[in-house]
Specification:
The chain is of the alpha+beta class and 125 residues long. It is built from two helices and six strands. Strands 1-2-4-5-6-3 form a six-stranded antiparallel beta sheet.
Length: 125
């Protein structure tokens, strides 16, 4: 999967989990530092958007589609600390023109997310 310049700036890596779903990883470092000891909220938000995009791109397969964001809502649940952050997206609806995707970010425990997002996309097929 080719990375966008923003994903490259954040140091995101793209892989798949045990079930074959896209998984995004971000190592903690100076480029994603917010207040001392915490990941910047913008970096977490960008990571969630990339995780949602990866999940949608995987759901579309080889189909040529232009993906344009309509709306992004992010809920920050707790501060991301000085460690590796993971994120995964899930397509909740894939229509002809609109797609709805959720994405979750966590660090030590997937059941204790640090942030979640709901994203709506316009699809031009």
């Amino acid at each position: 999967m080719s990375m966008s310049p923003y994903a490259d700036l954040l140091g995101l890596t793209f892989a798949t989990d045990a079930q074959g779903n896209p998984l995004v990883t971000m190592e903690f470092g100076r480029d994603v530092l917010g207040r001392p000891g915490f990941v910047h909220g913008g970096a977490i938000g960008g990571m969630l958007e990339m995780a949602a995009w990866a999940a949608l791109r995987a759901a579309l397969g080889e189909e040529e589609t232009v993906i344009k964001p309509i709306n992004v809502t992010i809920d920050f649940m707790r501060g991301g600390r000085e460690r590796t952050t993971f994120a995964a997206g899930e397509v909740t609806r894939l229509g002809t023109r609109i797609a709805n995707v959720t994405a979750t970010a966590w660090q030590d425990d997937r059941d204790r997310p640090i942030a979640a997002a709901r994203l709506n996309y316009l699809l031009k097929r």
